[in-house]
Design brief:
The structure holds two protein chains of two kinds. Helix content of chain A is 78%, strand content 0%. Chain A has helices at 2-20, 29-40, 42-72, 87-90, 92-120, 130-137, 141-168, 176-204. The model of chain A has no long low-confidence stretch (mean pLDDT 93). Chain B contains nine helices and seven strands, in the order E-E-H-E-E-E-E-E-H-H-H-H-H-H-H-H. By secondary structure, chain B is of the alpha+beta class. Chain B is elongated and about 60 Å long. Classes of the chains: A mainly alpha, B alpha+beta. Chain A binds chain B through residues 66, 69-70, 72-86, 89-90, 92, 160, 163-164, 167-170, 172, 176, and chain B through 6, 8, 19, 69, 71-73, 98, 100, 103-106, 109, 169, 171-174, 211-220, 223-224, 231-232, 234-236, 238-242.
């Protein structure tokens, strides 16, 4: 669970870095170049992408299984229970399920059309289409709002997830406070980064 | 002081329990929480009712026998204290107090507020010890030099009284803080390193067998622990477990 979480957190940094190139004022040239490379490079497509899919599937399957085990560990609930721990640390399954639902929407929006373009319709590779497709998607205000809400929950999920995963694999820092600071910086950067990209393209269309 | 008590009553582990309301009067603010329950039980006995069963022993925060979830918090609202160290001056006259047993599938209710915490004993028996040669050539523990930081960390871990508040506070009923403390207590000392691998594997195996939940690092256990056992012990447990698994 922790290892797949760390793997997905590294992937998110790479995803955000590519998305941020769409903010460069070069009419999408850099973003298109990188997206085309990622979309047609056989190593990315046939090795890294399946590994990523497996990582995602493993992470949420384990999350649901652990939640099931944890609920079984307390069959009789408290009438009145008050714990001194954060809301997000107690509700990782909730934020995780929202992120999973968002992932389904995200796949429907971008991955499914991409697979259709390349492998079903077998259209000619066009290097300049990605930036345009991105802007088209974020023209829709409902979609942009759903994405932004999901990014907030993703940020909260990562905030606890980062510190928790390092704790679970036994990796230590000099203090718990330092680990929490790293988790705060990482999760806020990811949430704000993705939100800025979505909002930018909503307004710039 | 006069108090309204909402206490979990359960005849035995096989029957369903429920919250029953009681009123107690003439409670001195300087009484301990357990003395307040003694007053209630005295009243119940006088009126021919069954007294409330609850665990207690030393009543000075050492033995780890007292339990109780008071107003939703294991060992009550104060940090770093056990139930027996909680005093009634912490409450106001007229307050309503919820009193429940520690809950967890691995801690079945025996009666009312008494739970069976023998799962902890079985975990401890599975590896929470150091084998010592007692055939006449026992080495004096003080003859083995131990770095001060290691000795301090081992001592802090050894402060765990095994009360089970970590399990009671955790949303997953995880016993990782208890097991982490017991593993760390020995793994940080040279005497404990000999059996370190078997110890951590056996104790974790027994913990899982008992039906405790998984640790999701919410930190509730550390926050509610009456002895302030640190989450670092869970980190150390994970590290020892991974090391042991790799060497297997």
């Amino acid at each position: 669970m922790a290892l797949s979480g760390i793997f997905l957190m590294v992937f998110l940094v790479q995803h955000l870095a590519i998305n941020l190139t769409s903010l460069i004022p070069d009419n999408g040239y850099t973003f298109n170049k990188i997206s085309h490379f990622m979309g047609y490079n056989p190593v990315v497509q046939f090795i890294l992408q399946p590994i990523l899919m497996l990582g995602v599937c493993f992470h949420f399957t384990m999350g649901i299984f652990l939640e099931y085990q944890n609920r079984r560990a307390r069959k009789s609930k408290y009438v009145f229970h008050k714990t001194r721990s954060s809301w997000i640390s107690k509700n990782m399954i909730l934020s995780g399920l929202v992120v999973l639902a968002f992932l389904a929407l995200h796949f429907y929006d971008f991955w499914v059309p991409e697979m259709d373009y390349k492998y079903v319709s077998k259209l000619i590779p066009a290097e300049d289409r990605y930036y345009h497709e991105l802007q088209e998607k974020f023209h829709n205000s409902t979609r942009t709002v759903i994405y932004c809400i999901s990014f907030v929950l993703l940020g909260l999920h990562l905030n606890h997830g980062l510190a928790s995963s390092f704790q679970s694999v036994g990796v230590t820092t000099s203090s718990q406070k330092k680990l929490k600071l790293i988790a705060n910086i990482y999760s806020i950067s990811i949430a704000i980064g993705f939100t800025v990209v979505a909002v930018f393209h909503y307004f710039s269309h | 002081m006069e108090l309204k008590l909402k206490i979990w009553r359960q005849k035995n582990s096989g029957e369903k329990g429920a919250i029953i309301d009681y009123n107690v009067k003439k409670i001195d603010p300087d009484m301990s929480f357990l003395e307040m329950l003694d007053v209630l039980n005295q009243d119940l006995i006088k009126s021919g009712e069954e007294p409330v069963a609850f665990d207690h022993d030393c009543r000075e925060g050492i033995c780890g026998m007292c339990s109780l979830v008071i107003n939703g918090s294991p060992h009550g609202p104060d940090k770093g204290t056990t139930t027996c160290q909680l005093h009634m001056r912490r409450f106001k006259s007229g307050d309503t107090i919820y009193i429940e047993p520690f809950r967890g599938t691995a801690f079945p209710v025996i009666k009312d507020l008494v739970v069976d915490r023998s799962a902890f004993d079985r975990i401890q028996q599975s590896g929470g010890y150091v084998s010592v040669n007692t055939s006449g050539n026992t080495v004096d523990a003080n003859a083995t030099p131990i770095p001060k930081p290691d000795a301090d960390e081992a001592f802090k871990a050894a402060a765990c009284i095994g009360c089970g508040a970590c399990v009671a506070s955790c949303k997953n009923s995880s016993a990782m803080l208890f097991v982490g403390a017991k593993v760390s207590q020995y793994s940080r000392l040279p005497q404990g390193k000999v059996e370190a691998r078997e110890r951590v594997l056996n104790m974790v195996k027994q913990m899982d067998k008992e039906g405790f939940g998984n640790c999701t690092n919410t930190g509730a256990c550390e926050a509610h622990c009456p002895k302030g056992i640190s989450l670092d012990n869970i980190l150390n447990l994970n590290r020892e477990y991974i090391k042991a698994k790799i060497r297997k």
